[in-house]
Structures are given as structure tokens and as C-alpha cells.
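B., you asked whether I could sanity-check this one before it goes into the benchmark set. Here's the sequence:
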Amino acid sequence: MPSQPKKMLIIAVLETLRKYTDENHRLLQAPLLKLLEKDYGLTVDRKSLRHNIESLVNAGYPLYYRRGWYYRHEMTRADVELLAESAVLNEAVSPEKCCKLVEKLGMLCPSCQPCLLAEKTAQTLPQKLYLLKKAVAHKQDVLFEAEGTRRVTPLSVALQQQEWLLTARRQGEPSVSTYQISGLTGLCLAEDASGASD
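And here's what the prediction gave me:
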């Protein structure tokens, strides 16, 4: 990033603390100074950093110190996860809208936390639904265990009689099959021809 003017320091400090910290992930002065230089091209001394943090605290920003500085976010990780899971479990939300919303919600979490609902292999129902909705939205194949390993192209995900169902086409077959999502194990995005998954 190009070098920023010194008057932007206070904003850079606030954004760095908002982006990289929470109550469980704190920054001492030295790592904070390194991030300011890396992300904003700002070389700052400790006195200027302390002065800017004090100004932000006095202005009412939710900055706290306990073995390092951190930003107290308005929404906790649990709040954001609940909203993401609600979007995933809502059958009225299209796969495309669901993916966009979960991505936006993920941006509310600092970068020190793992991505929402993102695990290499989906385990919980919300994780499975998110992965399948993502596969439908991006027209990407998935793999799962159901009487052997299967590779399918998901066509839709729907709630029918209180059971989430996947409608998919098995690779190389013209017919469509339906699977109970709760019974799928080892569910993951299939790797494309280059060997990289989405």
C-alpha cells in the first residue's frame, strides 16, 4: 500500500485494531507498529502511537487494554455465527444471496478469527448447508460418503417435511438423485481439474 500521510495515523490505528484484534486477540505496541508500517506504510514512534490510542479512547471508541490493546466489537463471534446460520437455514434465501450474506457477515469478524462456516470438511448441518448452497451458487461439484464415495453436481437444497434434501446429478449420469443432507458424511467441495477447490 502506498505511504499514507501522518494525519491519517489515527484512522490507521483504529482500523488496524478493528481488523486484527478482539478480546481474545490483543496487540502490544511493537506488533501494532509493524502492522501500521506493513498495511499503511506508516513509520510511527511509540509516543505518537500512545497519543493516538488515547485520543481514540477519549473520543469513546471501544478500545481496551489488558495485556495488549484490542477493539471490542459490537457483535460477538457468536452473534455473527448465529446470523450466518440463520441465513443458511432459511429456505427462502437463495444460494446466491446466502453466500453473499455469509461473506459480508464474515467481514464483521476480525481477521484473527477463522472464516464463518468454513471448514475443509463440513460437519454440522449449517456447515453442510452452506457448503451445498455455495456449490449450487458456483455450479461446483461436491464429494461425500453415502454407500461409497460419490461426486455429484448439486442442483438444489430444499427443506421438505422437516428434512433438508439435496437434489443432485451424479457425475456422468443424466438422472437426478435426492439425498438426506443429515446423512451425508465427509462432505466437501470437489477439486477441479487443476487440483484446487474453490
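One thing to flag: Residues 78-189 form one domain. Otherwise nothing jumped out at me.
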